[in-house]
Design goal:
By secondary structure, the chain is mainly alpha-helical. Helix content is 64%, strand content 0%. The protein has helices at 12-32, 37-53, 59-68, 70-98, 100-123, 141-144, 174-189, 193-212, 218-257, 284-293. The radius of gyration is 31 Å and the shape is globular.
């Protein structure tokens, strides 16, 4: 992962504030990015037809399995509704505490990718499989098993709060994208075989869950991985850009309030004169030397 070394551990309270602000902006932007429903349905059907032409539509068999088997469908719904919001913050906290030198780069990667996902929601609103007409063969398992959880028939939002989520933000799948970020971070920085195995298993499990619950197409998952890849490439330049802006602001503040002083440099107040131990004023040594060289008056 490029640009990983930081000079010091970030302050926890600034990181918390930054994450809250970015997530609030992302959530608000996701709501504002609601597009035309008819266009979203057309995009969803186009993706489905493309997958069927390439024999990639694994959503149908997985969705039928989850629908017919509550022992699989109910845990999958709980996983879809919770892990996205629990595992990602947990990995952030773990990385902050255990790998502080690599935290900033990983956090920036996650944030840049999330903002790229928001661009995708805006440009390509997409109807998820569960919201297509029944004739397309999908069952909304979140609605089917809603009596077992806190969600209603509108995605994973709590009952009565379905209007607070954009149900047509299926492309790309940030459920898969965030899970991939968690997996890569845990696999790379985890020290035990168990952690590394979890890092591999978690994103794969998420792909199966989002398709089996009919919340995403397979290509949504692929797009989520692609967004994370682009975010990884852009994370380094983003950090360098932030550093340049920050350094520029600090320099202007110094010039404005510190009269252009440079931190760590002590001002010269002696005009270049040097003093040694026992001398009180500059130039005393020179006058003493000249006095010593003057011949004593004759008696």
């Amino acid at each position: 992962m490029p640009y990983t070394i930081a000079s010091r551990r970030p302050r926890w309270w600034t990181e918390l504030l930054l994450i809250v602000v970015v997530y609030a902006a992302y959530s608000g932007g996701r709501l504002l990015a609601r597009g035309d429903v008819a266009a979203a349905v057309d995009h969803g059907l186009a993706i489905l037809r493309f997958e069927q032409a390439l024999h990639l539509n694994a959503e149908h068999p997985l969705n039928r399995l989850f629908t017919a088997t509550p022992a699989l469908g109910i845990p999958a719904d709980f996983a879809y509704a919770t892990l996205h919001y629990l595992v990602t913050p947990a990995v952030l906290v773990w990385l902050f505490r255990r790998r502080p030198l690599h935290y900033r780069a990983a956090r920036t990667w996650l944030m840049v990718s999330t903002l790229l996902g928001l661009v995708g929601f805006t440009l390509l609103p997409t109807c998820p499989p569960r919201l297509l007409a029944a004739g397309h063969g999908f069952v909304d398992t979140m609605a089917q098993y809603s009596s077992y959880g806190w969600w209603g028939g509108e995605a994973s939002a709590p009952r009565g709060l379905g209007g607070m989520t954009n149900q047509y933000a299926a492309m790309p799948s940030l459920h898969v994208g965030w899970a991939l970020w968690c997996g890569v971070v845990v696999w790379r920085y985890g020290r035990t075989p168990l952690l590394k195995a979890l890092g591999v298993a978690y994103p794969l499990l998420t792909v199966v869950v989002v398709m089996g619950t009919a919340n995403h197409y397979f290509l949504d998952a692929v797009a989520g991985c692609a967004v994370m890849g682009v975010g990884l490439v852009l994370a380094g330049p983003a950090m360098r850009g932030v550093d340049r802006v920050r350094d520029g602001v600090r320099q202007r503040v110094r010039e404005r309030f510190g009269r252009g002083s440079v931190p760590g440099a002590s001002p010269i107040v002696s005009g270049g004169c040097e003093t040694s131990a026992g001398e009180r004023i500059p130039g005393q040594r020179a006058r003493s030397a000249s006095a010593d060289d003057t011949p004593a008056p004759a008696r």
